[in-house]
Structures are given as structure tokens and as C-alpha cells.
Write a structure and sequence with these properties.
The protein is of the alpha+beta class and about 325 residues long. It has helices spanning about 20-30, 75-85, 105-110, 140-150, 190-195, 215-225; strands spanning about 1-10, 50, 60-70, 90-95, 110-120, 155-160, 165-170, 175-180, 200-205, 235-245, 265, 275-280, 285-290, 300-305. It is globular and about 55 Å long.
């Protein structure tokens, strides 16, 4: 049975690498008595995959792990048994079963939300250059003004580096939201603020296997727009949520300006076993009603005036 869980990664656990986090969960599932399916062959391993492995040093309250289970288990029982084996800096917050036809979270990932914090130690060392209190990020009105001018641009050119090459890229279309951070953004914001971290920016960016825009690239371009030097070590990046696109097609990226535009839905809802819907097109109006739980195609969907899209969520 396909399933998906959502978890947090904060505190000192943000310095633990992806492979170690995978081993951490493998051991936690065994200790909790969760019957995870194993691959076949000479070296069987637990069947699991991450939506998008978090970079070292980044924190998150919206990470996703897909797994295959041998038996049904309630959300409450799963959270209780697994979290009893975890520490407080990496906890499972949600759990759901998926339709068997559902693709992996890595395959459907379309966008991510990020909260950018300014570290308290920024500017204490003279060699870091610009002091935090002198930056446009330190003042809400200045920050807002720079963001407005930045987003008015038709093109935002950055140099994107990969392991094999470097290339100029226009990322304007892939920035869905870029706002001054406000109180209440993120459930774990207060934990970082207690450590002296100051939230300054909120971003929603295109993510996935085709186009993946990292928040560091946007910060670099934003600082260049403001005429300031960008210090990567001055910021803590915190991931809030991941999304799939209901309109996605393999090998394509739908943005807010695409036709059709992307229709983002949290990975906690994307492909959910009980979230399939009847779809009725009446002219240009789309109406949705809940399917009976677990049914992929109940035969009650109707089409009037437009070809039905049966791919589901």
C-alpha cells in the first residue's frame, strides 16, 4: 500500500545529511514495528523515497517521504508509534494513504514555500562587510520597496551553476511569490526567533526535476538589485511546504503564466486515497464532488461541452 508522511527537520538535525536521515527513518520504522515493504533481490531494502532532499544546514516543517506498507494503519497510530522513536527535532506531523495509481512525491513536485531568516551573528565580524542593520532587509519599508521594484522586472537573469556547467537563466516566471515575512508564517517560526533569527522574506518558487529554483539564487539576484553584497552564510533558509500541480504533464512545467496555469495543491493532499472527485464539465464551469473513498474511477463522471481529463489529481 502506497503511503506518504510529512515531517519536520529543525535544530541540530538540519546538519544531518540526506543518507543519514534515510537510515534514521529505516531504524525508526523497525523499532516502531511499522511493516514497511522491502525490495526483492539479493540486497533487499525498505521501499521509500523523499520528495526533494533538503540541503545541509536548511531547516523545514514541510518534508515528505513516500513509502510502501504491508498493512493498513490509522494516522493516529502511525504518528504515535513512529514519534515515540524520534527526537524533538525531527517529528512526523501527517500521514496518509495514496491511490495505487499515484506517482511519487518526487515525480509530482512542482513548487515549494520558503521562509528566509537573517542570522543574529550577521555583521559581527568586520570581514563580512555590510552590517545587518545597514541592509535593506533590516527595514520593513525598504525591504518592501526593493521587492516591488524587483518584481516589476520582465526578466531576472542569474547564473545557474550545476556540477557539469554554468548557464544564464531568466527566473522571473518561476518566482510565484516574493513577500516581506510576517508573523504567523510557519508553525515553527517562533522556535527560530527564540534563537535570535529574524524572518525577513517569504518565497514560493518552482521546484522539481525539470526546473528547480533554489532560494539562494533569488537572494543573490535580489541583493544585486539592491546594490548590496550577498553573504550566503548570513541567512537561514526554512522550508514551509511542498506542492504538486494538478495540471502537470510529464516533462512540462506549468507556471502562473502558463496555459493552463499551474494549480498547486499540498503534497499532503495530492493523490490522497480519499480525495478523488467526480468531475463534471458544464460548458466552461468545472464542478467537483467527492468520490466514494478509495475509488479511482467510479463511472459517475460526466462530460458536457468539454473533453474530460481522467488523469485525476
Amino acid at each position: 500500500m502506497k503511503a506518504r508522511m510529512k515531517f519536520t527537520k529543525t535544530g541540530s538535525m538540519r546538519f544531518i545529511g540526506h543518507l543519514d536521515v534515510m537510515r534514521y527513518f529505516q531504524k525508526a520504522f523497525r523499532r516502531a514495528g511499522i511493516r514497511v515493504s522491502y525490495s526483492k533481490g539479493f540486497s533487499p531494502h525498505q521501499i521509500m523515497s523523499f520528495a526533494s532532499p533538503l540541503g545541509l544546514g536548511l531547516s523545514s516543517e514541510g518534508e515528505y517521504l513516500d513509502l510502501s506498507l504491508e498493512e493498513e494503519i490509522s494516522k493516529e497510530e502511525f504518528l504515535k508509534r513512529v514519534n515515540e522513536q524520534m527526537n524533538e527535532e525531527i517529528l512526523v506531523t501527517d500521514f496518509l494513504f495514496l491511490l495505487e495509481e499515484s506517482k511519487s512525491s518526487m515525480a509530482v513536485l512542482a513548487a515549494c514555500d520558503y521562509l528566509i531568516f537573517m542570522k543574529p551573528e550577521w555583521g559581527k565580524e568586520q570581514e563580512q562587510g555590510l552590517l545587518a542593520q545597514d541592509s535593506f532587509l533590516a527595514d520593513f519599508e525598504k525591504r518592501k520597496a526593493v521587492l516591488q521594484e524587483f518584481l516589476k522586472k520582465e526578466r531576472i537573469e542569474i547564473l545557474k551553476k550545476t556540477k557539469r556547467s554554468e548557464k544564464q537563466m531568466d527566473i522571473r516566471e518561476y518566482i510565484y511569490q516574493l513577500l516581506p515575512a510576517e508573523n504567523g508564517m510557519g508553525k515553527l517560526q517562533e522556535d527560530l526567533k527564540k534563537e535570535g533569527y529574524e524572518p525577513v522574506l517569504f518565497m514560493q518558487l518552482t521546484s522539481g526535476s525539470v526546473i528547480n529554483i533554489k532560494p539562494e539564487l533569488v537572494l543573490e539576484a535580489l541583493f544585486a538589485e539592491a546594490g548590496e553584497e550577498y553573504h550566503s552564510a548570513a541567512f537561514q533558509i526554512h522550508r514551509l511546504e511542498m506542492y504538486g500541480d494538478r495540471n502537470m504533464k510529464k516533462g512540462e512545467v506549468h507556471t502562473l503564466k502558463s496555459n493552463p496555469a499551474c494549480e498547486l495543491v499540498s503534497l499532503a493532499e495530492y493523490g490522497k486515497w480519499k480525495e478523488k472527485t467526480h468531475v463534471s464539465y458544464v460548458g466552461e464551469n468545472l464542478e467537483r464532488e467527492p468520490h466514494a473513498a478509495g475509488y479511482y474511477d467510479c463511472g459517475q463522471c460526466s462530460v458536457l461541452g468539454k473533453e474530460q481529463d481522467k488523469k485525476g489529481i
